[in-house]
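Notes from the 1:1 (GR / supervisor)

We went over the backlog. Supervisor wanted to see one worked example end to end before approving the batch request, so GR pasted a single chain during the call. The sequence is below; no edits were made to it. Supervisor asked that the structure be written out right there so they could see what the output format looks like.
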Amino acid sequence: MARGDLAAVEAWLAAVDDGDGARLEASTTAEVEVVGPRGAGRTGRQVLTQ
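Structure output shown during the call:
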């Protein structure tokens, strides 16, 4: 993993930790894949702030 990649991950996690939905959406691609106990699926990034 390149240093820039790590910075992107750290910024994304900081947005999650801070509860900053706007910053989270801005640092996420338009379409994301969500994986969890009920299965997996692709959806829009706005699901991350719901």
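Supervisor's comment: The longest strand covers residues 31-36.
Batch request approved.
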